[in-house]
Write a structure and sequence with these properties.
Helix content: under 10%
Distance between the termini: 26 Å
Radius of gyration: 20 Å
Number of helices: 1
Shape: globular
Order of helices and strands: HEEEEEEEEEEEEEEEEEEEEEEEE
Amino acid sequence: MEHPSRRTILAGAAALAAAPALAKRQGAPAVISNPLVRQRADAQIFRHTDGWYYMTASVPEYDRVVLRRSRTIAGLTTAPETVLWRHLASGPMSGFIWAPELHWMYGKWILYFAAGPSGGGADVFRIRTYALQCDGGDPMTGRWSVLGQLQTPWDTFNLDSTSFVHRGVRYLAWAQREPGIETNSNLYLAPLASPLTLAAKPTRLTVPELPWEVQGFKVAEGPAPLIRNGRVFMTYSASATDARYCMGMLTARDDADLMDPAVWTKSPVPVFQSSPANNIWGPGHNSFTVDERGRDMLVYHARDYREIKGDPLFDPNRHTRVQPVRYRADGTPLFDPPVANGAIPAAV
């Protein structure tokens, strides 16, 4: 096997560094390299009608809500980050801050997040969902304040709220522990009356029960809707947040009553999971966006090593990554294995 020379390596590196500028001059999207943003987990990238890509995510310290934006996905890597809100000094929102999600709804910017109290012990996992609201049209410069707590039928562990509109109805999907069901969290869906009030009794979409959903913990969390090709696809994440973390998917016809649990079918196997070949581990907690070419893009976090010392929750290196979504002939999404670090291959 012939080894590349130092000159060849340097030439290749220079070409890669010049690629974003060349792409910009030619009107093509800049080259996206993974990790897109380091040490940002539970990432959401939201392309608004103003043409900006907004990105929010959990930070390793779990102490604040952050937001960055760019005109391109690739530009998010170096985009300045603004702190919108910090956890409080005491009370139910003084501990862990998890999984923020930004939405434009009801004519204002709303940001869902999960929070618990400080103080140590099991009580720090008394996680509930809250929302922030912005007082202006620019979420980067507006003033953010706490709107309140999400009201669900049970005062139990809940997180990972996301909202979407389908056939004129605004829905909320989220993860929650339901009394009487011995799991860490299940997935639920309900129409909204307001950002924090459900308009109907929630539907339980799925319970973690398959072998790949219950490794370490019995978890279904991080729902993410993708409405394409006559169907509503709802991806979600399962199992512990180490290398066993993976992504599942529910599917319903787009003309079905989404509040009827019988219309949803679950993939019997993970649709996205660790890639030993590419050295990407524990991919999950995804969202979806579209790139500048209009391609659907999968946004997720993962580590680039398998072994973790201590609690995976406190390992900071879950990095935000993106890659295109392909579709099978029948219109269902095909998620290629998580790509290796570096520029996303053109063939993907």
